[in-house]
Amino acid sequence: MDKQDILLHTKDGIFSYRVAGILIRNGKILLQRAPNDPGYAFPGGHINFGEVSEKALIREFREEIFADILPVRLLWIGENFFPMGEKNCHQICLYYLVSLCDESQIPLDGIFYAQDELEKKKIDLEFSWIDLKSLEHVEIYPICTKEKLLNLSDHVEQFVFIENL
């Protein structure tokens, strides 16, 4: 039986429960984006109903980029509001600091590609290692996380991000 993503479609919009990994190596962060999309996001995906968030993150990294990760600690809890296609999305996302279990599993420099399944459709994803020093020139969603990346807190932070709806 297929597990069900926590992705609820209503007449008013979409609710999404997601988990994301913050993977930093040698002064660079791993980010993902759809080809032809100027903005990056953090790797991860939707949590399945009944699934623990850390397990979901491990599963998503394994499914998308064939990498085994270790969630180190929860960094942020984000409540994000943004357009998703023709509807508005209300998303709760848990952001974890993660480390690689085996550094030979993915390229540690440059760009590589993987596929993801969003609502039963295969989409290509571009993964890039972006230098933390050049983040000011990079579009990252949610926008408020850019500053947080450069000043990681020792405690869990909560934020609300509202994109023009």
Please characterize this protein's 3D structure.
By secondary structure, this protein is mainly β. The protein has a single domain (7-162), classed as Nucleoside Triphosphate Pyrophosphohydrolase (Alpha-Beta Complex). Helix content is 12%, strand content 50%. It has 2 helices and 11 strands, in the order βββββαβββββαβ. The strands form 2 sheets. Strands 1, 2, 3, 5, 6, 7, 8, 9 and 11 form a 9-stranded mixed beta sheet that branches. It has a two-stranded parallel sheet with strand order 4-10. The chain starts with 6 loop residues before the first strand and ends with a strand.
Structural class: mainly beta
Overall CATH architecture:
Alpha-Beta Complex
Q: Sheet bearing the most strands, described?
A: 9 strands, mixed
Q: Summarize the amount of helix as a percent range.
A: 10-25%
- The tally of strands reads 11
C-alpha geometry: globular
- CATH topology call: Nucleoside Triphosphate Pyrophosphohydrolase
CATH class: Alpha Beta
The quaternary structure here is: single chain
Topology:
Blueprint: E1 7-9, E2 14-25, E3 28-33, E4 39-40, E5 44-46, H1 53-65, E6 69-84, E7 87-100, E8 111-118, E9 121-131, E10 139-140, H2 145-150, E11 157-162
Parallel strand pairs: 2-7, 4-10, 6-11
Antiparallel strand pairs: 1-2, 2-3, 2-5, 3-9, 6-7, 8-9
Task: Name a few traits of the molecule.
single chain, 165 residues, mainly beta, Nucleoside Triphosphate Pyrophosphohydrolase, nine-stranded mixed sheet, two-stranded parallel ribbon, 11 strands, 50% strand
